[in-house]
Amino acid sequence: QSALTQPRSVSGSPGQSVTISCTGTSSDVGGYDHVSWYQQHPGKAPKFLIYDVNKRPSGVPDRFYGSKSGNTASLTISGLQAEDEADYYCCSYAGRSTFVFGIGTEVTVL
Amino acid sequence: DVQLVESGGGLVQPGGSLRLSCEASGFPFTNYWINWVRQAPGKALQWVANIKQDLTEKNYVDSVKGRFTISRDNARMSVSLQMNSLRAEDTAVYYCATWGAHGPFDFWGQGTLVTVSS
Among partner residues B35, B47, B59, which is closest to A96 by beta-carbon distance? Predict the structure, then answer.
C-alpha cells in the first residue's frame, strides 16, 4: 500500500500542455485498468476528473486526457487555463476493493 | 443534487476515540460503496476504508486496521467511522466519498477535521 509516485510539481504557460505521470507497480497501476484522477483546489474537496484510465465524467472538459502504459499512468492537460492551477492526484485500484493514491502534483500556470 | 455531509471531527488526545458520520442525500444510496479518505495537513490524499452496499464487505488501509471500524445504516443513508486508539498521525481532514458505476470517489463531502494532540 505504498503511495503512487508523481512529480511534485509541473508548470506551463496558458495554452500549453502539461503531463503528469503516476507510477505504481504491477499490483496496482499495472494490474488494473482502474486509474482515476482528481483535481483539488486549496481548501476544497477533490473533484473527480478521469476514471478507468481515460474516461471523463460528464462535465469534465476534453482538455483533460488520461492514458496508461505498463505501471505508469498519465494525465495530460491541454490548452492550460488559469483555473487549472491546482493539485492533482492519481488513484489506482489495488485489488480486494482497496485503493492507493499518488503523492500529488502541484500544477502551476505561469 | 448529490450531497455528502461529514460531521464529528474535533480535537482528541492521543489514545482517545472519535466517531465520524457521513449523511447522504440526493442519490440512490444503496447503489454505492462508501469510502473514507483522509488528508493530513499539507499532505496527499490517503484512502482509509470502505463498505459495500449490503454491508457484507469492509476494507481498511493497514495503518488503521484494528483501530477503525466502518459501518453504514442504509435506512438512514449514513455511514460512520469509529476511530479508536487515535495517534498524532491520524490528524487529517476526513472525507467521505462514493464509489459508483463511473468509478471510485465520484462524489465527495466537504470533509471534517480530526486533530489528535495533547
Answer: B59
Residue B46's DSSP bridge partners are: B38
End-to-end CA distance of chain A: 34
What is residue B103's predicted lDDT score, i.e. its pLDDT? 86
pLDDT tens digits for B62-74? 999 999 999 999 9
- Contact status of A32 with chain B (Cβ, < 8 Å): no
Q: Which of B64, B60, B69 is nearest to B92 (CA)?
A: B64
Q: Can you give the pLDDT at residue A1? A: 77
Residues belonging to chain A = 110
Residues of B in contact with A100 (CB under 8 A): 47
Note the pLDDT of residue B100.
86
Question: Between chains, do B108 and A45 touch, taking CB under 8 Å as contact?
Answer: yes
Counting Cα atoms < 13 Å in the Cβ hemisphere of A12 gives 20
Are the beta carbons of A48 and B33 separated by less than 8 Å?
A: no
Instruction: Give φ, ψ of B95 to 5 degrees.
Output: -110, 140
